[in-house]
Amino acid sequence: MQEPTFLILTALAAQPLHGYGLIQSVADLSDGDVRLRAGTLYGALDRLTGQGLIEIDRSEEVDGRLRRYYRLSDSGAAALADQAERLRRHAAAAETQLRRRLAPGMSALAEAVA
Amino acid sequence: MTQAAWPAPNASLENWYRRLLLAYPGYYRRQHGVEILTTLMETSEPERRRPSRAEMTDLLLGGLRQRFRLPGERPAVLLAAVLAVLALGGFGAAAGSWLGERTFAALPSTVQVDRLSDVIAGGPEGASDKLPAGPVLTSSTAEMVGGGTGLISTPGWTAQQALARLADQGWELRSRKPAAVTELGCSGGFVAARNDGLVLRADECRGEDGVSVKTTIFAERGGAYLPSTVAGAFVGAVIGWLLTAGVSYRMRNLSTLRRAAVGLLAGAGLAGAALPVIAFAANTRLLLSHLDDSDFAVHVLHAPLKPVEYFSFGPQHLIATATATSLLCALTVLALSRARAAAYVDRAPLVG
After folding, report:
1. Which residues of B touch A68 (CB under 8 A)?
2. Domains of chain A, each with CATH number or no CATH
3. Which residues of A touch B (CB under 8 A)?
């Protein structure tokens, strides 16, 4: 699962959102690192809808404008939980490896003792 | 979100976005066009009059991706797309091949072929019998004109002398290797070419009573033939994929009965395309294996569509009938899916 997809599912986990709300939420969740554009967003939404990971929740229409709200489906929630768990495991593994890494001075000392 | 938070009108910017949204397929614009436009207006800066270059690129690429995207992850849709690519790629190649043949040199008329027969026979005009000149159609080659002589009455006739007479008319010897023995018992001959792209193949048929010459005149392969055929195959393959993607998306909104009808007709159309595509593929193999052989008529992919028998089974016009049936099925599939798409209504409940 790519990062924008993960963030879109994450944004929809708490509440249904429309396109603009999703763009804002993804930007907030990523601290501004991921700024989706409309073409990219709707391509992802179409793909996720086809995969059954999200569903259309409702629509609002005013003066020729239309906001369509999307919500996370049950299978989308399961996929997101799986991915979050996978990322958590990977992050924990990375932290463990980093703790094992010796500081430069300690590394020289270890070689001298050996 | 309250009504006051809706984006303010901005006609100039909105027109830009509407034009850019044309990059998306029609069925998708009908379902999501207004929604995307609303989001674009909401994300735009208040005073902006035209989209940024990044926005334009994003929408154009998004539209292009959407045109090629297959809905969901269904193996049946992918299989249909691959078969449509093969079928329409084949027909596209045949169309390109037909266009390519139009660039070949024009074949001589039957009267001109009769005159050539006199030149080959030598002696006074009309002294030797002529074989009736006429078009020669085969299921694997470009068009040809056939003709020749009956028993040649010119005393001491030789092919060398005939070639010398032909040289006066611009024909130059290309090869003199003995031709393969044919059903007529012709076992020798020559091939001569003219600089206007025409080739004359003469088969000498020697018998106890004398010699006769069977001639076939055909055009050399033009430089545009192969690029035209390859381009046709590419365009056909792309159209095949795009049509499958479009119909598959529209099928999502069809009733079960109509979806089944579209699926059956699409399957029948693809099955009907199998025979002509197999014939095109066989002719492609012949074309490639004779690519450097200029002593024979050019093998062309679209030849099986001519009114000649290709397969030994079925009626004579089997390939043309299968092609017509396949086309009819494809048009019906498009009409059935389009009729419903035009009447598509957003199924999400409207509030606010």
Report:
1. 32, 35, 348
2. 3-113 (1.10.10.10)
3. 18-21, 23, 37-43, 46-47, 50-51, 56-68
Q: Do A47 and B69 touch (CB under 8 A)?
A: yes
Q: Which residue has the higher pLDDT, B185 or B150?
A: B150
> pTM of this prediction?
0.79
Nearest to A16 by CA among A65, A58, A46: A58
Residues of B in contact with A57 (CB under 8 A): 348
Q: What is the pLDDT of residues B45-75, one digit of tens each?
A: 878 889 999 999 999 999 999 999 998 778 8
Q: State the average pLDDT over residues B104-110.
A: 91
Q: Per-residue pLDDT tens for A61-108? A: 887 788 999 999 999 999 999 999 999 999 999 998 888 876 666 666
- Chains A, B: CB pairs < 8 Å: 94
Three-state SS at A2: coil
* Alpha carbon distance A22, B35 (integer Å): 13
- CA pair distance A107, A111, nearest whole angstrom: 6
| Full DSSP string of B324-352 | HHHHHHHHHHHHHHHHHHHT----SPEE-
Contacts with B348 from chain A: Cβ below 8 Å: 56-59, 68
The CA distance from B96 to B90, in Å, is: 10
- What is the value of ipTM here, to two decimals? 0.85
Residue with structure tokens 């986990």? A13
User: How far is the first Cα of chain B from the last one, in angstroms, to the nearest whole number?
Assistant: 10
Q: Return the pLDDT at B344.
A: 41
